[in-house]
Predict the structure of Protein GrpE.
Amino acid sequence: MATEHNEQAQDQTVDQDQDLENTETNENAEEVTVEDLQAQIGKLAESLKLEKARAANAIYESEKVKERLEREADTAKKFALEKFAKGLLESVDNLERAIQAAGEEKTPLLEGVELTLKSLLSTLEKHEIAAVDVDNGFNADLHQAVGIDPNAKAGEIGNVLQKGYTLSGRLLRPAMVTVGQ
């Protein structure tokens, strides 16, 4: 029994020593912990700044992508009529040829063709399709020179063989012209 009592006393002493060491360690840990916590707060503040900057950059980039997609959609809508408009230009050309072929005589048929042409041209204008200007001289961006006109001055358009058209400022079909030398 005495041995057991001694062992219990030793165990209590060891437990008390361990408690004392734990208390001292906890006090030291508290001091280190406060410093560590302050360092962690600094690191977290820097990390927060970085993440805020990344989030702001992501928002900025998404807005730019949104604007670009809207611009591309507007452009696609604007020029979606391009193939259809090119097909209509052949009809305009044919109506103009019919009017030229009729000559000076005003017949009801000629008046009908002229009204049809006028209606078609006004519809084209509503959709921003306009004839290319041929009065201000030759412009290689808008005109296609297919021959030389000896009667025209150099750089000027002598004869328009086929009208050119633009769709919302973009060339749809160049004007086929003869140019002076």
Q: What stands out?
A: Residues 8 and 14 are 10 Å apart (CA to CA).
